[in-house]
Amino acid sequence: xxxxxxxxxxxxxxxxxxxxxxxxxxxxxxxxxxxxxxxxxxxxxxxxxxxxxxxxxxxxxxxxxxxxxxxxxxxxxxxxxxxxxxxxxxxxxxxxxxxxxxxxxxxxxxxxxxxxxxxxxxxxxxxxxxxxxxxxxxxxxxxxxxxxxxxxxxxxxxxxxxxxxxxxxxxxxxxxxxxxxxxxxxxxxxxxxxxxxxxxxxxxxxxxxxxxxxxxxxxxxxxxxxxxxxxxxxxxxxxxxxxxxxxxxxxxxxxxxxxxxxxxxxxxxxxxxxxxxxxxxxxxxxxxxxxxxxxxxx
Length: 298
What we know:
Layout: E1 2-3, H1 8-25, H2 39-67, H3 70-94, H4 98-113, H5 122-125, H6 135-141, E2 149-152, E3 156-159, H7 160-171, E4 178-179, H8 181-198, H9 200-209, H10 213-224, H11 288-291
Antiparallel strand pairs: 1-4, 2-3
Helix pairs in contact: 1-7, 2-8, 3-4, 3-8, 6-7
């Protein structure tokens, strides 16, 4: 098996960028969510993606989960996860995270050598945790605005920033350089099915919990891709909110929008919702000499 760069990755990257450009060029809905100005177009693409998933991807994933032995499924996930760790090591370094870079790089070395090219996750057993990172995250760490929310055909939720980041992730994905091409496409299809099989257990819960599945997925994606929690190793002046998460960038929270405790990132101080000042007056002690004694009647 050899690794040779081909034009396939260039075509995929150009397709993703072209799709993002077409979405951004569409007329924005003035009444839409500020982070989702192209909601009507995004919903149409989302409906198309759900049809493809319901008629093709999900049935194959169900069959894969039911018929392929679990050790084989685990090996597939481990192998492609090891390839992803290589690119995560590069992005952790670009994000100025030396500890995460060292740990992820050591994971790759251990799993490649002792795990037979990553088929067995020896690193996790040894206590080396996976520190996933991508180029869209790297852009967010260094202050690149997220841009509008986008739904890409077949690829799903994204933003303008993450679409650019995905093109780099795809270009430097070592699997896209595998030759022969038949092995490359077969492995890519296997990876897609394996990922989809991992989300099968969430389908029922998502349909039951979400009144509007599109809005639920969008809000969850934007919250997960908020770069505020990614900047812990940067200088203090660069850790402030610069608006790359879609906010106004002043770092403040409107008084009428309290923050839920479970949405705060680790290390953040809990927000205190201030109301009008309340003054408490201590009641004066009553004189028992007058209340306990009966009054003399004349």
